[in-house]
Amino acid sequence: MEPRIVLPTASPNQVYVSVSALDAGHITLPEHLFVTDTDPLNRVTVPSLSFLIQHPSPTRTTDSLDSGTHTNLVFDLGVKRDISKYAPAQQTHISQRHPLILSPDCADSLRAGGLDPANEVDAVILSHVHWDHVGTASDFTKAQFFVGSGTMHILHHGAGPYYPAEIFVGDEVPFEKTLEFPPVPSRPEDHTRAVDATRQTKHKWVEAQEDSQSHAMLDFYGDGSLFVVDAPGHLYGHVNLLARTGPKRWIYLGGDCCHDPRILTGEKGIALYDNGSGGLRSVHVDITAAKKTVGTVGRLMTEQVTEIGGGTANIEVIVAHDREWRQKNLHRFWPSYL
């Protein structure tokens, strides 16, 4: 059985966050590269969603990269509004993902709801650093950036033969304002990818003591309102978010754990296709880990989930490229709430 995500119990004075979806561009995917049992000619235009998470901190400060006093946090930045800002190798790949919809991008969506991305966004967490999630980091002048363990290494050295260094950009995120979450203790290979230990956050990964198969999570604000979830498989350092939005109510932001919610429910599987050398590959850097992560997240959708201490929890799972979810939930985009 796949690991499970353990939902911590609420504290007596529990803090909650609010979550809003943000349009951040659209890309077009050849379905057969992502989902099993589909027409090889079928192409679908999907969103690359971003999310605004608002935490009721009493003050905002950017004095410390690890202060934990942020108020407005954005998860993923979507697609750049100016394709020419991508590196040449990225643009070659992007040419296979047309048509694109570049407006509104993440910053435009924030402004449309009355929030200034340059001055009022305190933190940005990237699920990973593929081109359709990094957006335009320079729009977020004051934000502190957080990425998964080993991400800075990927930006400079790539992530294996299918993700060479030229499809990443070393300065995609502002180095001086970016911290990596620490390596996950249960995965020794993570430690070898950490570029600079001095640029790691002070957060600690925690796994439920009573369940050795539980997923590693870290408490971002330290008050049980927002958890970063280790979600390996798609790209090294890939993380998800688990937001507590009310009593026994949670939002799970799955990033690119998969590219179609039917994979989470078991209706479809992760596609395999020709790797160009007579073998098979998927869109994930580690297909075994990706399948485990899909199984873990899928359990949130298909099984009754309880918090530690008891009580059924209501969990809404959203992945970054879910077209149908977007179509059904436009009324919940910023400045409205999920």
Question: What does this protein structure show overall?
Answer:
By secondary structure, the chain is α/β, with parallel strands linked by helices. It has a single domain (18-332), classed as Metallo-beta-lactamase, Chain A (4-Layer Sandwich), CATH 3.60.15.10. It contains eight helices and 16 strands. The strands form four sheets. It has a six-stranded mixed sheet. A six-stranded mixed sheet has the order 9-10-11-12-16-15. A hairpin with an 8-residue loop joins strand 10 and strand 11. The chain is globular. The model is unreliable at 60-65 (pLDDT under 50).
Q: What's a quick, concise take on this entry?
A:
By secondary structure, this protein is of the alpha/beta class.
Characteristics of this structure?
globular, Metallo-beta-lactamase, Chain A, alpha/beta, 16 strands, 20% strand, six-stranded mixed β-sheet
Please state the overall shape, judged from the principal axes of the Cα atoms.
Answer: globular
Main sheet: strand order: 1-4-5-6-7-8
Rounded to the nearest angstrom, the distance between the terminal CA atoms is 31 Å
Question: Biggest β-sheet: count, sense, barrel?
Answer: 6 strands, mixed
CATH-derived architecture? 4-Layer Sandwich
Total domain units:
1
Topology as a string of helices (H) and strands (E): EEEEEHHHEHEHEEEEEHEEHEEH
CATH class label: Alpha Beta
Strand content: 15-25%
Class computed from helices, strands and strand pairing: alpha/beta
Integer-rounded radius of gyration: 19 Å
Estimate the mean pLDDT confidence. Answer: 91
- Uncertain ranges: 60-65
Total helical elements: 8
Q: Under CATH, the topology is which?
A: Metallo-beta-lactamase, Chain A
